[in-house]
């Protein structure tokens, strides 16, 4: 996994981790229509901004629709997943650093 390089994350989903700071990092994620990010959780706090498209997030059992220009906060340890309702692109911001993605 390389910094500033696109990689396949899941079927229909690719991501690029941008160069991280000391305590915060960004990751761009592109979804084909119908592609899903499987449910997971992590101790990191996350902000997700929709650059384009429309997605349905499940965050701790609640559905949140996210469209271009909108953002959502995903608290630490919240179980979350997402499905793209159309081709979509997100910018995820994490703090502290996601060492699991960087190593």
UniProtKB/TrEMBL annotation:
<feature type="domain" description="Cupin type-2">
    <location>
        <begin position="28"/>
        <end position="94"/>
    </location>
</feature>
<dbReference type="InterPro" id="IPR052535">
    <property type="entry name" value="Bacilysin_H2HPP_isomerase"/>
</dbReference>
<dbReference type="InterPro" id="IPR014710">
    <property type="entry name" value="RmlC-like_jellyroll"/>
</dbReference>
<dbReference type="Pfam" id="PF07883">
    <property type="entry name" value="Cupin_2"/>
</dbReference>
<dbReference type="InterPro" id="IPR011051">
    <property type="entry name" value="RmlC_Cupin_sf"/>
</dbReference>
<dbReference type="InterPro" id="IPR013096">
    <property type="entry name" value="Cupin_2"/>
</dbReference>
<protein>
    <submittedName>
        <fullName>Cupin domain-containing protein</fullName>
    </submittedName>
</protein>
<dbReference type="InterPro" id="IPR025499">
    <property type="entry name" value="KdgF"/>
</dbReference>
């Amino acid at each position: 996994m390389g910094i500033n390089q696109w990689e396949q994350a899941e079927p229909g989903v690719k991501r690029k981790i941008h160069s991280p700071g000391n305590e915060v990092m960004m990751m761009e994620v592109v979804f084909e229509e119908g592609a899903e990010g499987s449910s997971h959780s992590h101790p990191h706090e996350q902000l997700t901004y929709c650059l384009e498209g429309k997605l349905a997030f499940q965050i701790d059992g609640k559905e949140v629709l996210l469209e271009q220009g909108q953002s959502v906060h995903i608290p630490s340890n919240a179980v979350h997943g997402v499905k793209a309702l159309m081709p979509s692109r997100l910018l995820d911001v994490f703090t502290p650093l996601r060492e699991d993605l960087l190593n």
